[in-house]
Amino acid sequence: MLSRWIKDVSWLFCRTGLRRGHRPWGGVGRGSWLSLLLSVLMGFGILQAAPMQAAAEFNLPPLPYSANALEPAVDGSTMKIHHDLHHSAYVANLNAQIPTFPELASADLTTLQGSISKYSAAVRNNAGGHYNHSLFWTVMAPAGKGGQPSADLVKAIKLAFGSQQAMQQQFNQAAASRFGSGWAWLIVKPDGALAITSTPNQDNPLMDLPDIERGTPILALDVWEHAYYLNYQNRRPEYINTWWNVVNWKDVNSRYMATRN
Ligand code: MN
Q: Please, which residues have CB within 8 angstroms of residue 147's CB and are 6 or more apart in sequence?
């Protein structure tokens, strides 16, 4: 019991960085002496250092707003379940693949999508789920806070679709007609032009898979039932239409600009 407590304290010091850079003989204060005592005990092999948390495993990003901030377009219960349970499960299941594919421990989530064909279905589904949801939260904002498409983006939208309304109609069509679970996307293709596409399950346009129109996603809509069923039941088109009220154009604009640099 005592050793467990000391281990926990040791771990805490490890986490807070108090032990880093401490000078055993020059230190003053209670923290330093406790730290010194722990060092001595560890030196005698009485204590073993608790392993530091692996630095590069995948983490669930917090929602950038409160769970009910997108109401009435997306209700708070849906957001909470979607983020805290669904997204968190993708992260946990992806981390569970690290022992099988150790290189995942240092993989960049976005880069990983581009070589997903080398991996198992479990990695594909969960790395996709983690990437897609991380993107999804940021391309939404409370109604009235998301700004408008920038002049540059409007220009690109007009070039590709004729008008913003036409773009949204095509996007809605892609989202509504995705059979079963999946996503609708506004992407920047390798040639710089905008396009609308959709993917099944947790696939996305960055993945090096056949049947995927590839590009950099700048806007995404989750059309899995878990994204809307509590509030809209089977009325997916109503969810899609209402969702435009909570698009975070500021984020979409900066994602678009990033593809042009
Ligand atoms: Mn989802």
A: 248, 249, 250, 253
Query: How far does residue 202's CA lie from ligand 1's centre (Å)?
Result: 8
Measured in angstroms, how far is the CA atom of residue 239 from the centroid of ligand 1?
A: 14
State the distance from the centre of ligand 1 to the C-alpha of 221, rounded, in angstroms.
Answer: 9
Q: List alpha helices for the chain, DSSP H.
A: 2-16, 30-43, 76-80, 88-95, 109-113, 121-138, 151-161, 164-177, 229-232, 236-243, 249-259
pLDDT band per the 50, 70, 90 thresholds, residue 20: very low
Q: Rounded to an integer, what distance in angstroms lies between the CA atom of residue 186 and that of residue 182?
A: 14
d(CA 29, CA 56): 33
- pTM value? 0.79
pLDDT in tens, 124-161: 999 999 999 999 999 999 999 999 999 999 999 999 99
Å from CA of 133 to ligand 1 middle? 6
Q: Domain limits of the chain? A: 2-43, 76-259
Query: 36 C-alpha vs ligand 1 centroid, how far in Å?
Result: 48
Instruction: Report the topology of domain 76-259.
Output: minor pseudopilin epsh fold (3.55.40)
